[in-house]
Every structure is written in C-alpha cells, then in structure tokens.
C-alpha cells in the first residue's frame, strides 16, 4: 500500500454488552429521578404540614399565656381574701358595712359650690 492509498477505517461496533450497560444506566437514572421527585414532594408536603402545626401551636401558646395570667390573678385574689383587713375594705366599698366603732364620712355625689 502506498502513501496515497485509501485506508479503510472501520467504525467501532457497539457490542451487546455496551448496549446492556447503557440500558441499565438509563433505567438507573429513571428510577433515581422518580425517587428524587417522590422525596421532594414528600418533603414539601411535610413542610406545609409543619407550618400549619406551628401556627396552631403559636395560637395555643397565646391562649395558654392568657389562661395562666387569669389563673395568677385569681390566686392573688384568693390570697388577699384570707386577709381580714381586705375583707373589711370590700365590705365597706361594695356593701356599705362599717364596724360599730367607726363613723363613716359620706360625700355627696353632686357638689354645688
């Protein structure tokens, strides 16, 4: 063969082994893509569910704080009602009751000067 003679080049033939490997790779990629899509949708739905629960929890904590405040006020009132002097103040203020030795000073409602 000479310098200018045509050389025959043969294209590499794909064997069945290479086709099988390509097919397995495509199947693997398809399964992985489906898995990633499923995992992403699950993560998204759980995130939405957690946000809803967080809002409910925040409302419940506000309600709990309000109940705790009213509970503390009632406990303070119960402690104050154990004091005889406080009971006397309530009797004077709400019911107009005074001890016999005490003379009440009542101011008139309308003062015309």
Secondary structure blueprint with pairings:
Layout: H1 16-81, H2 84-95
Care to describe what's here?
It is a single chain. This protein has 113 residues and is an all-alpha fold. 69% of the residues lie in helices and 0% in strands. The protein contains two helices and no strands. The longest helix has 66 residues, at 16-81. The termini are far apart. The mean pLDDT is 88.
Question: What percentage of the residues does DSSP assign to strands (E)?
Answer: under 5%
Q: Extract low-pLDDT stretches.
A: none
- Report the structural category: mainly alpha
What Rg, in angstroms, do the CA atoms define? 45 Å
Mean pLDDT: 88
Query: How is the biggest beta sheet arranged?
Result: none
* Secondary structure tally, helices: 2
Topology pattern, helix = H, strand = E: HH
Shape: rod-shaped
Termini separation comes to 140 Å
| Tally of DSSP β-strands | 0
Give the % helix: 55-70%
Q: In a few lines, what is going on in this structure?
A:
The chain is mostly helical and 113 residues long.
Features:
single chain, rod-shaped
């Amino acid at each position: 063969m000479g310098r200018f003679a045509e050389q025959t080049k043969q294209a590499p033939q794909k064997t069945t082994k290479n086709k099988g490997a390509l097919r397995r790779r495509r199947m693997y990629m398809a399964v992985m893509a489906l898995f990633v899509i499923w995992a992403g949708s699950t993560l998204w739905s759980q995130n939405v569910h957690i946000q809803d629960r967080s809002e409910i929890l925040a409302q419940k904590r506000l309600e709990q704080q309000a109940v705790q405040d009213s509970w503390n006020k009632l406990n303070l009132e119960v402690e104050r009602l154990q004091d005889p002097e406080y009971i006397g103040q309530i009797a004077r203020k709400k019911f107009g009751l005074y001890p016999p030795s005490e003379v009440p000073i009542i101011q008139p409602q309308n003062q015309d000067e």
